[in-house]
Amino acid sequence: MSELPDFSDLRALYVNCTLKRSPERSNTQGLMDASIALMREHGVHVDVLRFVDLDVATGVYPDMREHGWATDAWPEEVWPLVESADVLVIGGPIWLGDNSSVTKRLIERLYAMSGERNERGQYVYYGKVGGAIITGNEDGIKHCAMDVLFSLQHIGFAIPPGADAGWVGEAGPGPSYLDPGSGGLENDFTNRNTTFLTYNLLHLARLLKDAGGFPLGGNSIAEWEEGRHSGFEPNPYGANPEYR
Known about the structure:
By secondary structure, the protein is α/β, with parallel strands linked by helices. About 35% of the residues lie in helices and about 15% in strands. This is Flavodoxin.
């Protein structure tokens, strides 16, 4: 193997968005575990959550107890792990060709925090890296990963190349990833993509951490609010339709 940097000061959070509560077996967790094992092999501190096990309220505010919910595990149990992570991997199943309802609820709660600032005054997810792991027995890996990864980059996560991995069996009812005879554990395409996903997440997280985060040039919220727009000029077509 080519020489690798030291990743042991990095933290990663894997959130499994299966619909199955613990201790029921999760095929998504099975594939996530392959990536987790690689990270831990390199000394990365990895936290793992099964989102459906937690009493997380539905909504797009940081604390839904302030918006009519009696309980909300997000502020105390989930957000501290997200905030401290250099890498976030969202894993989930495909249902009806799309991400699970649990995946969507997680993304909504991540979005709820996107207006917060980090210690450099940028949006809070700047400097963090995101990836997606998808499983199912129907088509839709790329569609589901596209949805997750677009959402993550939109709120500030950096996305490396090859930031998604997945496994699906034959279209229609059939064996799932961990089922005997499914071929999931031996699938070379899935194993390669999961390996590349893991290392590319680590490499980008390493680069960003060593750089002190994402550069401030051209994306300072404070400067924009003060009227300093980093050289941006309004489109002349907007002010003068006759401009050519």
